[in-house]
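Hi R.,

Here's the chain you asked about this morning:
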Amino acid sequence: MSEHTVLAEGLQFPEGPIAQADGSVLLVEIARGTLSRVANGKVEVVAELGGGPNGAAMGPDGWCYVCNNGGFLWVERNGRLYPGNEPADYPGGRIERVHLESGEIEVMYTHCEGQPLRGPNDLVFDRFGGFWFTDHGKTRQRERDRTGVFYAKSDGSHIEEVIFPLDGPNGIGLSPDEDEVYIAETPTGRLWAYELAAPGKLKGERRDRPDGGRLIPGREGYFLFDSLAVDATGKVCVATIIDGGITVLDPNGGEPGFVSMPDPLTTNICFGGDDLKTAYVTLSSTGQLISLPWDEAGLPLNFLNR
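And the predicted structure, written out as tokens:
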């Protein structure tokens, strides 16, 4: 287990961290239904979103874009919080954005070509101002949604399902040259790479596999994948559930690595600090945001001022 610093406690299932230039960290609290800010050990609510705010990213307009999965039934066990099935009051999934100064909220997308979004989970902006996002779907007692991956414009003018189906797609990121998009599947513990030809477009129409992607070699054992971040060398750092930590995978075929964390529900990682060599990690079941030094610098995110 790595040496770390606890930046905040008592968070209600934190996810989607975004390290800011002033040293604060934006994140969502899924069970609280908020976009929140952690600064100097204090937690401030930026916006009351309701539902289940999940992944978050800064857009080209300076607003914070949020994947809202619509919420969960929650289970508390031995002082830890766990997400469960689709709740009875589930309102549907959506993409929304928040003005950080005023707290104003705008809903950007709820459907794609007539198909409702089910459980938008995580998103990443490309350099052109569009964003990729995953729809993880919702789970009920005896069934689970089939979902995929979407590309949308930040002005609300276009949304398209680009990849379908995947098995519980969760974390998503872009390679340093933005010629590949990486997608983590939760239940399979797999990381897929898809070559890109243009913003929002896969390379070639023929797919080599039924899933349409290239499988990145991973670790042995049983675990689940959550959200991810890419470092400056192009390695993909995937938050890992069950054994609790960050799995580091090399799209170029290097050996996988693993950094242990003190929570089996380690759900997300982002990079910050002057040199982007500080990792910020959400420990969701225990409600903590922690930081720790990282060997490699993170890949700078588009539209995130530093």
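The chain has a mean pLDDT of 95.

Let me know if you need anything else.
M.
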